[in-house]
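S1.2 Input.
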Amino acid sequence: DPPGSTAVTDEQKRVVDRLAAEIVRRRLTAPALLFLESSRPLNYIGSQLLVFCAPFAEVFFDPGDYGTLAGFLENRGSIEYTCRRIEALDDERHGAGTVGSKSDSKETQG
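S1.3 Output.
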């Protein structure tokens, strides 16, 4: 696996999108991205920590989603994918009408 590439299943996409949406909803985009980018070299160790903490964490989180996320984070490209999803959802929420968007460029061409 080259760094930054990972095959993402539909279940993993659903869980990551749910996590990303919650991060954006709580307006934690910048801290989440900072944390994820700084922990990128340790993503496999972090995923194993999630597995270790599963008996406690599953009291608060859905066990299926928690296991899916922990398994997904074992992949090298998982942090990159998660960061891009958070950024995309944040852009959708805040940047729908920004200059340079596709709708703006169509108006200037026509």
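S1.4 Remarks. The first helix runs from residue 10 to 25.
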